[in-house]
Amino acid sequence: MTYLKPDNRRKNKRARFYIVVGVCLVILILLSVFAPHLFSPIIQAVDRPVSSASSGIGGGLADFLAFFRTKAGLEQENANLESDLAADQAVIVERDFYEDEASTLLDLASSSPANFVIAPIISKPGFSPYDTFVIGIGSHDDVKAGQAVLTDKTTVIGRVSSAEGGSATVILASSPGESTSVLVGSTSIETTATGLGGGNFQIKLPRSVTVKVGDFVSLASSPQEMFGVIGSVEAGPSDSFETALFRSPINVNALRFVFVDTSPL
User: Which residues contact residue 148 at a Cβ distance below 8 angstroms, ignoring those fewer than 6 apart?
Assistant: First the structure.
C-alpha cells in the first residue's frame, strides 16, 4: 500500500507569512510608541482626502437642508405679511365706513327739522315681514304708531305700525291696502293711491279725467316731491273708470337712514 506524503511546503509558507506579519505589527507598535513623529505625514496624507470627502458630503447636505429651511421660512413670512396686509385693509375699510357714516349723520342732523328723529334701518324688506322694515329707535325715543316715516324732509315712504323700547316697525306706503293721498298730472288731480306691494301703486280715476303714461305723481302733502311716474293706464271699453299704475322711485334697500316725524298726531 502506498501513502501520500503530506505537503509540508504549504505549511512552511503559511507559517513564514504569519511570522512576517507578526514581526511587522510588532515593529509598527514599537515605532508608534517610541517614534510617533514618523507616522504623522502618512496619517495626514491619508486623513486629508477622507476629511475633505466627509466635509463635502456634510457641507452639501447642510446646504441642501438650509435651502429648504430658508424657503419654508420665506413662505411662512410671506403668508404672515399677506395676513397682516389683509388685516390692515379691513381696518382701513372699517374706518372709512364709520367716517362716512358719521359724515352722513352730521349732514342729516344739520338739515332735519327739530321734530324729526334720525333712525337707522336695521332690517330691510326681505329680512322683515313683507313690505315692512325695522328701524333702530322706538318708544324710548317718542316713536309711536301712526307717525310718518320719510326719506328726507318731505318724501314720505311709510308709517310706523308698532313701536317698542329700542326699535319700531315701519310699513311701506306701497304695502297692499295702504292708502296715500296724491296729486296726478299737470292738472294736479287729487286722488288716492292704493298700495299693491313691492313698491307698486294703483290709482282709479273717472275716464273723463285725462291721465297718461309719464305723468308725475306727487304727495298731496308735498306737491313739490315726486312720488312716482305713471307707467300704464288701463280701462275696458265699458269701464267708467280707468286704472293707472305707477311705481315708487325710492329703493328702500339702498337707504341706511330715515326720518321719523315725532310731531303730535
Answer: 156, 158, 159, 260, 261
CA distance 103 to 31: 99
Give the residues across from 189 on adjacent strands.
184
Pairing label, strands 132-135, 116-123: antiparallel
CATH code 2.60.120.430 for 116-173+255-261: no
CA distance 132 to 201: 16
Task: Write the CA distances from 257 to 95, 129, 179, 205, 244, integer angstroms.
Answer: 19, 19, 23, 35, 31
**83 or 100, which is more confident?**
83
Number of H helices and number of E strands within the chain? 2, 12
With residue 229 as reference, give the H or E element that holds it: strand 222-234
Spatial contact of 157 and 171, defined as CB atoms under 8 Å apart: no
How many Å apart are CA 82 and CA 78, to the nearest integer?
Answer: 6
Q: Give the confidence band of 138 by pLDDT, cuts at 50, 70, 90.
A: very high
CA atoms of 4 and 40, how far apart (whole Å): 53
The model's pTM is 0.56
Tell me the pLDDT tens digit for each residue of 176-214: 989 999 999 888 889 999 999 888 999 999 888 888 999
Q: Cα–Cα distance between 3 and 226 in angstroms, integer?
A: 142
Q: Does domain 179-247 have CATH number 3.40.630?
A: no
- DSSP readout, 164-223? -SS-EEEEETTSTT-EEEEEETTTTEEEEEEEEETTEEEEEEETTS---TT-EEEETTEE
In whole numbers, what is the pLDDT of the chain averaged over residues?
76
Angstrom distance (rounded) from CA 30 to CA 32: 6
Q: Which amino acid is at 147?
A: Q
